[in-house]
Amino acid sequence: MIKLYWSPRSRSFSAIWLMEESGLPYERVLTDITTGAQKAPDFLKINPMGKVPALCDGDAALGEAAAICAYIADRYPETKLAPAVTDPRRARYLQWLFFSPSCIEPAIIQIFTRIEVPTSTAAWGSAAQVFDVLEAALEKGPWILGDQFSAADITVGSGLNFAVRLFKMVPSRPAFDAYIARCMARPAFQRAEKIAAG
């Protein structure tokens, strides 16, 4: 049985959404970060960073939401959450799968903290560039790879939902609003939102 370690109102949302989309049976293991449960020695064996989400699947254990998305999509190809390794779309899938943690999240932090980072040294370029590039990609739609919904939509959709809809840290754009609405219309997203709310 796959075990997903999570905490309400946390970054666990994307992993919950992934598991709900996958249709795979899984057990949610509440890890209450308000009480420090993520720092317990047993949990640190699963994720030494002491963060949720984390996942165990038999002898495999990992943390980081995008890594969890990649693992489940590849380990269980029947979920159809990733193009096959031989599919040319695989390259763009991987790029967008990791775009959220490597570009969207740093851009959000840059906006929130108002830290000026030279675009030549920031791995994400600039917040404006991140959201301009993402807008151009989403205008083609309906999903980041076109017609196929994938785990990359879970990482990108979670990032935009957080930044635009929930916390209004990033200004709304028509392409973002339409994409977020498509994500929200998915039954798995709706179930994940209820679960993540606690």
Itemize the secondary structure elements and their pairings.
Elements: E1 2-6, H1 13-22, E2 26-30, H2 41-46, E3 54-57, E4 60-63, H3 65-75, H4 89-97, H5 99-113, H6 127-140, H7 151-166, H8 174-184, H9 187-196
Parallel strand pairs: 1-2
Antiparallel strand pairs: 1-3, 3-4
Overview of the molecule:
- This protein is of the alpha+beta class.
- It has 2 domains: 2-80 and 191-197, Glutaredoxin (3-Layer(aba) Sandwich), CATH 3.40.30.10; 88-186, Up-down Bundle (Glutathione S-transferase Yfyf (Class Pi), Chain A, domain 2), CATH 1.20.1050.
- The chain is 52% helix and 9% strand.
- It contains 9 helices and 4 strands.
- The protein has helices spanning 13-22, 41-46, 65-75, 89-97, 99-113, 127-140, 151-166, 174-184, 187-196, and strands at 2-6, 26-30, 54-57, 60-63.
- A 4-stranded mixed beta sheet has the order 2-1-3-4, with helices on one face.
- Helix 1 links the parallel strand 1 and strand 2 (26-30).
- Helix 1 (13-22) runs parallel beside helix 3 (65-75), helix 3 (65-75) runs antiparallel to helix 7 (151-166) and helix 7 (151-166) packs across helix 8 (174-184).
- The two termini are 22 Å apart.
- The mean pLDDT is 95.
